[in-house]
Amino acid sequence: MDEKIAKLKSWIDECSRIVFFGGAGVSTESGVPDFRSVDGLYNQQYDYPPETILSHTFFMRKPEEFYRFYRAKILVPGIKPNRAHYALAKLEEEGKLSCVITQNIDGLHSDAGSKEVLEIHGTVRKNRCMKCGKFYTGEEVRLMEGVPRCTCGGIIKPEVVLYEEGLDMPLLNKAVDYIHRADMLIIGGTSLVVYPAAGLIDYYHGNKLVLINKQATGRDGDADLVINDSIGKVLGEAVGV
């Protein structure tokens, strides 16, 4: 076993209030696209960058274009949890992990068996009519054509935090509390550039801050252990899944 992963495993064995904070890199290993990347496919099919399309203003002004992108890039059918998701669920089951805080909206942590999951950017699994509040699943929205509409005629909006929208403050405060009380904070699959979520790292005051990401981040200097590798591989080997 790699020396750094062995060190991570040793720390996990010592701790009982671990908190995991994850970003898009956790889900890309399950085949979920990183929507913030601008690649050839986006350039060929869309007239606007993903950040513009996934904004509140754009949703209200051009719901047809929003949903064309949303169905193609965000509502990815058939995705399954990967080793990282299962490793975290196992740690929670063993009483080692207190909570998963995720920027992802795909619901894969819950699919893997994690119970305490704070989805600070919302989830594609929940959608509500803007007129009457009726609930719809992500799959129901995916199968509708054009702009999804409720039986009452209202437009259905996903319960995800779009650009220009504020985060759920009670949920964010809960995340801060978990991190403040953690004896170990593992951050994985995120470049720590999206605020205010990225600022959560500053609420950890312990000595076991672990950053796992394929590329270096601007906060690597603050970490007690940095591993530049696949999040699924690292957590899978450290936890044994």
Major beta sheet, specifics? 6 strands, parallel
Number of domains: 2
Strand order of the largest sheet: 3-2-1-7-8-9
Q: Mean of the pLDDT scores?
A: 91
Q: State the helical fraction.
A: 25-40%
- Give the CATH level 1 class of the largest domain: Alpha Beta
Q: Could you say which structural class the secondary elements and strand pairing correspond to?
A: alpha/beta
Distance between the termini: 14 Å
Write up this protein.
With 241 residues, this protein is α/β, with parallel strands linked by helices. It has 2 domains: 3-32 and 80-121 and 167-239, 3-Layer(aba) Sandwich (Rossmann fold); 40-77 and 129-160, no CATH class. It has 11 helices and 9 strands. Strands 3-2-1-7-8-9 form a 6-stranded parallel beta sheet, with helices on both faces. A 3-stranded antiparallel beta sheet has the order 5-4-6. Helix 8 (108-112) links the parallel strand 2 and strand 3 (117-119). Helix 1 crosses helix 11 (231-239) and helix 7 (83-93) runs parallel beside helix 11. The longest helix is centred in the last third of the chain and has 13 residues, at 169-181. The relative contact order is 0.19. The model is unreliable at 38-44 (pLDDT under 50).
Write the layout of secondary structure elements.
Elements: H1 3-14, E1 18-22, H2 24-28, H3 40-45, H4 50-53, H5 56-61, H6 63-74, H7 83-93, E2 97-102, H8 108-112, E3 117-119, E4 122-129, E5 135-136, H9 138-143, E6 156-160, H10 169-181, E7 184-188, E8 209-212, E9 225-227, H11 231-239
Features:
11 helices, 9 strands, 17% strand, 2 domains, alpha/beta
